[in-house]
Amino acid sequence: MSRVTIVLGESDIKPEGCVIGVDYGAFVCARDGVEMILACGDFDSVSDEQFHLIESVTRVDRLNPIKDMTDFEHALTYTKDYDEILVLGGLGNRRDHEYVNIILASKDSRITLMDSINRIKKYDAGVHRIVKGDYQYCSFIVIDEGMITLDRFKYPLVDRKIHVGDTYLTSNEIVGDEGTLTLDRASVLCIQT
């Protein structure tokens, strides 16, 4: 499995695999000595001095600030050859960016958004193992309707029809080290916190 980490800002989590720094996240990587394969963005959130540091350590794709996509969305155009995309620094801070980052994660099951207390990932139809790790709660937001089965969860479900807008899938808990999520024709956004 090939993995790339996209760094959008400050994070306590260590990047894995190849690294793409985005805007201020590229400065964070350059400052902390994290090797990047690329830095991209319009760099409107870094100073001239910070930008010079970025361009001194990696290749830069500087975007026009007048554009029809976010810097993160542009960074995703470089990830076609990766199986997993870890995104750091994309939660918290500006709510508009956070919301757009979650929308992008809900469209691509390769993406995992993480910060110190949350892990957000889309799951498509199939059987999935979800590791509990340090997360107490596990919630599911329905993206596409279908059937769900939750095994080794505090509130298990067996072949339950799920609908967009269902709220009862919030604040479940994995029993033991991992739970099993089975989706038939459905897709969900899993939020562990």
Short description:
The chain has 193 residues and is of the alpha/beta class. The protein contains four helices and 13 strands.
Number of strands: 13
Number of helices: 4
Helix content: 10-25%
Structural class: alpha/beta
SSE order: EEHEHEHEHEEEEEEEE
Characterise the protein shown here.
The chain is of the alpha/beta class and 193 residues long. It is 19% helix and 36% strand. The chain has 4 helices and 13 strands. The protein has helices at 24-32, 48-57, 71-76, 95-105; strands at 3-7, 18-22, 38-41, 60-62, 84-88, 111-114, 119-123, 126-131, 138-144, 146-151, 157-162, 178-184, 187-192. Helix 1 (24-32) packs across helix 2 (48-57). The longest helix is centred in the middle third of the chain and has 11 residues, at 95-105. The chain is elongated, with a radius of gyration of 18 Å. The mean pLDDT is 96.
Name the descriptors.
nine-stranded mixed β-sheet; 13 strands; elongated; 193 residues; alpha/beta; 4 helices
Task: Chart the SSEs and their pairings.
Layout: E1 3-7, E2 18-22, H1 24-32, E3 38-41, H2 48-57, E4 60-62, H3 71-76, E5 84-88, H4 95-105, E6 111-114, E7 119-123, E8 126-131, E9 138-144, E10 146-151, E11 157-162, E12 178-184, E13 187-192
Parallel strand pairs: 1-2, 1-5, 2-3, 3-4, 5-6
Antiparallel strand pairs: 6-7, 7-13, 8-12, 9-13, 10-11, 10-12
Helix pairs in contact: 1-2
